[in-house]
Every structure is written in C-alpha cells, then in structure tokens.
Amino acid sequence: MQPEAIKNVAVIGAGSWGTALAQASAVAGRRVTLVCRDPEQVAEINTRHTNSRALGALPLDAGLVAALALPADVDLAILAVPAQQSAAALGVHGRMLGGLPVVLSAKGLEAGTLRRQSEILLDLVPTATPLVLSGPSFAEDVAAGRPTAVTLASPDGAMADAVAAALAGPGLRLYAAGDMIGVELAGGLKNVYALACGAVEGAGLGASARAALIARAFAEMARLVVALGGNAGTLTGLAGLGDLTLSCTSAQSRNYATGLALGRGEILVEGRRPLAEGVFTAPVAQAIARRQGVDVPLIDAVVLLLSGRAAIADIVSGLMSRPLKRED
Ligand SMILES: NC(=O)c1ccc[n+]([C@@H]2O[C@H](COP(=O)([O-])OP(=O)(O)OC[C@H]3O[C@@H](n4cnc5c(N)ncnc54)[C@H](O)[C@@H]3O)[C@@H](O)[C@H]2O)c1
Ligand SMILES: O=P(O)(O)OC[C@H](O)CO
C-alpha cells in the first residue's frame, strides 16, 4: 500500500488519545472520522469543533468530523479506547474492519484472557492487519502539535512504512518497526512501572530510589519481552526507554499521578480517578510472568501495593532485603 492510498481514517474512541490522534491525522492531510458513543459529543465536535470532555477548548482541525459509526470508505482505522474496552469496541465496529490496517493505540493487557491488543484484534477480526502505535506521547502534546515521536510496529513492514508516512505531520514523527510484541509489552508495562515510580515519590523515598527503579524496571521488562518472543533491543527505542522515561518522571502521566496518590497513602476509589491503565495491567503482567517462569519483583510489588494488603514501607523493605545478585 502507498501512503497516498490512505485517504480516509476512522478513529474509534473519542477520549483524549483518540481525539489527539484524530487531530494529528487531520493535520497530516487525511479525512478523519472520530467515532463517538454520545450524540451530544458528535454535535459538539461537528458544530463547535471542540471535544471539551477530552481536550478542553483546543480547536479541532476542520478536516475532522465526528459520527456514531464508521463510514463505508475507510482506508485505515485507529482503535483508541481503554485496553479493557478494546474487545467490546471491536464487537460493535469489527465487521467494518475486515481486510483493513488497524492501528492499536491502547497501552495495556487484557484481564482474564491475558491478551495483547494485537491478539484481541486478530481473534475478533482475523483479516485485519495490526499495527501497534506506542511511545512517549501525551495526548495534550500531540493534539497541540508539539513535537512528538512514536514507534509504529507491525509484522507487515511495508504496511508499517506506509501508515507511518500517512500519519506523519509537522508535529508527529512515526518510526516504523517490526517487533510488535516488544512494542506492545513496553507500552503496557511502562504504566505499571509509572505507578511504582509515582508511589516512590509520593512516599518521599527520593530521586535515587526512583532512578534505580527505572533501571531495574528496564531489566525486568527485557526479561519478559524476550520470554514472550520479542526483541530486547526494541526497549532501547521510543516505545521502551522513551515512554518509560516520560511516564516514570512526570506527574502529567495519569499512572504516575495515581502512584503518587498511593504512595501518599490515599485509597483508590474506582471510577473516581482518571484512567490509569497500569492498575488493570499489573495483575495481568504478573500472571503472564508466572506462566513464563519469569522473575518480576517490581510487578509483584505493584500488585501488592494495589491490593492494599501491605504498606509501601514494607514492600520496599522486602525488595531491598532480597538476596544480592549480579547485574551483568
Ligand atoms: N491520553 C494519553 O495521553 C494517551 C497517550 C498514549 C496512549 N494512550 C492510551 O490510549 C488509551 C485510551 O486512553 P485515553 O487517554 O483516550 O482515555 P480517556 O479516558 O480519555 O478516553 C477513553 C474513551 O474511550 C471511550 N470508550 C470506552 N469504552 C468504549 C467502548 N467500548 N466503545 C467505544 N468507546 C469507548 C470513552 O467513551 C472515552 O471517550 C489507553 O490505553 C491509554 O493508555 C493515552
Ligand atoms: O497518562 P498516562 O500515564 O496514561 O500516559 C500517557 C502516555 O502513555 C504517555 O506516553
């Protein structure tokens, strides 16, 4: 496929990330339909050209329209609902996606089934071509056109090149890559480690502890990626190091902010906080690691923290008192 053949893009999911990707695609010259669930949101986007629920007063590109369903002439779809909702959204829209390239942009692993996003897509729409978009990218930055670079991974290299070229614009640079498993895992796992880093800051444990945590998270992530057939080298790129750095150091990350609250001793009340994908992915990552026989002390620590069954001081002391091991 040539990039010029990708004229019409549909984005499923009108939250902050879906709206930001729709905006970037429109700025890149595509005709974009943002698929919403709420008729009032459709009306606001089509008349006032804002999506206030997702991105406040940010003016949206004139090439972006909203609808309740996918149009018939879509060349490329982008799925941008929370990771635990991907199967439900594909259940509604999947029959329109047969044979199409589908960009998966949620960062998370599915509870219960332990599926990655590409596995969910291929189970529900076997003829679609999956591409995974991940990397350091806050919706607010992408929507405002601030410089952002991400990875776009697919086993179909020619398709990844074409879609990267079709979606690239003045503020968004996409690097095509082949290791979809590594990129998907990196995107899901960084949210778990961002929770941990936020908790370290919230508990006042210091910047040295947070830096050590990031480095050990990188090593842990590499073990899991390799065990699942991915490439550890992928983690040196945008989806690995790039996103781990962003999410583990910035309170703008919802996962980091949630960790901050946990570290301060606050109790999480479901539905009362912004989406923090790591809360759902942590137990899934732990189950996958157990299945593969991979040692993941940091993921275990986050699962324990989220369970509310142990204080952060005890969790940290448990991590620090493990038998010493070699780094090399
Ligand atoms: N916000 C960011 O900066 C950002 C950046 C990169 C990746 N992501 C990822 O994008 C995904 C979505 O995050 P977000 O920030 O847009 O969340 P959000 O909470 O802002 O929005 C989620 C949207 O999905 C819609 N939705 C939920 N279930 C649905 C369903 N079954 N069918 C159709 N629509 C449904 C909701 O109505 C809402 O509009 C997450 O996996 C997140 O990790 C977010
Ligand atoms: O706000 P978060 O923690 O969901 O992070 C958003 C993006 O994934 C950052 O790359």
Task: Give structural attributes.
12% strand; N-(1-d-carboxylethyl)-l-norvaline Dehydrogenase, domain 2; 14 helices; NAD; alpha/beta; EC 1.1.1.94; phospholipid metabolism; eight-stranded mixed sheet; binds nicotinamide-adenine-dinucleotide; Rossmann fold; 328 residues; 6PGD_dom2; binds SN-glycerol-3-phosphate
Description:
With 328 residues, the chain is α/β, with parallel strands linked by helices. It has two domains: 3-177, Rossmann fold, CATH 3.40.50.720; 181-320, Orthogonal Bundle (N-(1-d-carboxylethyl)-l-norvaline Dehydrogenase, domain 2), CATH 1.10.1040.10. The protein has 14 helices and eight strands. Strands 3-2-1-4-5-6-7-8 form an eight-stranded mixed β-sheet, sandwiched between helices. The chain is globular and about 60 Å long. Residues 13-18, 37, 54, 80-83, 85, 88-89, 105-108, 137-139, 275, 277 line the site of nicotinamide-adenine-dinucleotide.
Proportion of beta-strand residues: 5-15%
Shape: globular
CATH fold call of the largest domain = Rossmann fold
Looking at CATH, the homologous superfamily of the largest domain is NAD(P)-binding Rossmann-like Domain
Query: What portion of residues is helical?
Result: 40-55%
| Main pleated sheet | 8 strands, mixed
Query: Which structural category fits the helices and strands?
Result: alpha/beta
Give the rounded overall mean pLDDT: 97
The protein's oligomeric status is: single chain
In CATH, the architecture of the largest domain is 3-Layer(aba) Sandwich
The CATH class of the largest domain, by name, is Alpha Beta
Our count of domains comes out at 2
Bound molecules: nicotinamide-adenine-dinucleotide, SN-glycerol-3-phosphate
Give the termini separation.
44 Å
- Poorly predicted runs of 5 or more residues: none
Widest sheet: strand order? 3-2-1-4-5-6-7-8
